[in-house]
Structures are given as structure tokens and as C-alpha cells.
Amino acid sequence: MKHWLCLSVLVTCSSSLFAQTAPTIHELKASPQTVHRGFFDASLKPVLTINSGDVVKLETATGNPRYFEGLGVPKDKIPQELYAVYEGVEGAGRGDHTLNGPIYVTGAQAGDMLEIRIRSVDLRLPIAGQGFVPGRGLLSDEFPVAKDRVLWLDLKNKTTEYAPGVVVPLKPFWGVIGVAPPAARGRVSSGPPDIFGGNMDNRDLIGGTTLYLPVFEPGGLLSVGDGHAAQGYGEICLSAIETSLKGEIQVILHKNKRLQQPRAETPTHYMTMGLHQDLDEAAKIAAREMLDWIVELKGLRRDDAYMLASAVMDLVVTQVVDGTKGIHAFMPKAIFRK
Fold first, then answer.
1. What pTM was computed for the model?
2. DSSP run (H or E) holding 83
3. Residues 97-119: pLDDT tens digits?
4. Which domains does the chain have, with CATH numbers?
5. DSSP per residue over 266-328, as a string?
6. How far apart are the C-alpha atoms of 214 and 212, rounded to whole Å?
7. Which of 188, 209, 207, 214 is nearest to 199 (CA)?
């Protein structure tokens, strides 16, 4: 009897402890009241306040209905959710950078770090768009006439038939994940990525990965959007397969953990990011960041880490079309036995 009572008390205490530590789950769906478009700004009022460790279920929107109507899609084929989100928006632009947020993280201050665990990312709606415009993109001088197209997504099989006999596998991710820039910078375009993250267009930030961002303003003011169904490294025409996504993130606050650039982890690799107008400089930033991280994590001498990186680290072109170009570096975790 005493044994049973002790076990019962232990189970009760464990259940109580779990209840106290279980994260709060929030929902943040794209709506005219919960999105901002095309910019980051520290003066924006948060649309959601969370605590460290909380989970946010997101539904993001990409695709102004007038864009699809202009390409000949009947109104009854365009999801009604998009009409609601883009109500009152002028023009017929696709509206890729329709960002959910900002999200205020209680206790976050300048000099802290946010850990954003991307628990899942998935396709939300079956319609997507892609296009290019004159003067933009890697080969802009070869394609002087704009082109846009609609793509229909197979949500079950996660594919799209790009052309007869050409089937593209879909690997969804959010192209934009960022915090507010320093208030002194004012309103900043969401086009180029920056030290606060933003439009990194990093196709490796899929479900199961973790992104680390520096905090510059109280609450961090995190925003997420720009859903991509698929994108190649480089994103050479300036557009991925742009679509609406759903998923979950968990946000964890790390006090007094200052970062110089965004970092990330996959289950198998450490990832650092270099962002610069010059691709060579972006590569140097990504490499330096990786050396710093490995020295910090593993206690290696910096010159040894430099040679190790030359032996096993990969440099990948993230994107080359957003003004500020991106390189990310991959260091395999499996080589470290402790």
C-alpha cells in the first residue's frame, strides 16, 4: 500500500510538472488585421504576444486574387481565404511578402537571441504563382519581357506538373523569417535579407530545422511569410513557386546571447549565413561565422577549424537576386564525436 501511494504521488507530481511546463499553443492566421506587407519596422504594433517556449500555429497567405484573375483563373477556382486576406489591397501584384506578425516575445531585449524551431511546414492551398520582371533576376538582360504563370499543386503527393512530362517535387519553406531591425533604421524593405533575417530565401529551413536570430528591439517582433512550394538554390529568375503555407514554430528566448548574423541547425548540420551585395564577401561572412561557431561549440583552435572547414564544410549559394546575396555554409555534425 505504501509503495502504491508513493507511486501515485510521483505520477501526480510528474503530471503536474508537465502541465506547468507544457508550452502554450497560439494560432496566427493571415488576415487584414494580422499581416504587414513588404517591410519590417520596429514601430509596428505586435499582433500576438507569446512567452519563451510557446508554439505558434501559422497559416500564411501568398497570392492576391486579382493576380490570378489577371492570368485567367475563374473566381470560383481561387480559394476564398485569399479574397479575405487581400481585401482592400490595391493593384494586382502577387503579394508574396504578406507577413504574419509581428510576434512579441515577452522578455526579449537587444542583445538577446531567438531560437525559432520550425516544427513543421506544409502546403496550405493548391494554387501558386511564379514569374519574372524586366531588369531583375540573374539573366535579366536575356529576358526583357515579363512573364507570369499559375501553377496547380497536388497537395497529397506534394508535386506540381510544371509542363507535360515535367513533374516538380514540392519542398515547402518560408522565404521570409525575420525580427524587427533597429528602430533607428526606420521602415526597411523586406526585399533584401539582412542581419535581422528577413528574405533569406533559404530552402534548407524546412520542418525540423532551427533558426537563430539576433534581437534588436524589445519583444524581438518576429514576422513570417513568403511561402515557397519549391525553389532551387539561387532562385535565379527572382521567384520561387510562391504559395500559401501552414505550419508550426516554437520560439525560445536566450538572454544575453548576441549574434552577428543569422544561424541555423538541421538535424545533420550546423549552418551559418553570409549576406552581402558581393557574393565573395557573402562567402567570407558565412565561413567566418562557421569558424567562430565551431571554436565556440567544440573548443578547437581557429586555425584548426579553418583547415577542418576546408576538408568537410560546404558553401551553398542561397540566392543571387535580392540585391543582398546569400551564401550558407554547412558543417556536418557527424564528424564530432563529443
1. 0.92
2. helix 80-85
3. 999 999 999 999 999 999 999 99
4. 23-260 (2.60.120.580), 268-338 (3.10.28.20)
5. -SSEEEEEEEESSHHHHHHHHHHHHHHHHHHHH---HHHHHHHHHHH-EEEEEESSSSSEEEE
6. 7
7. 188
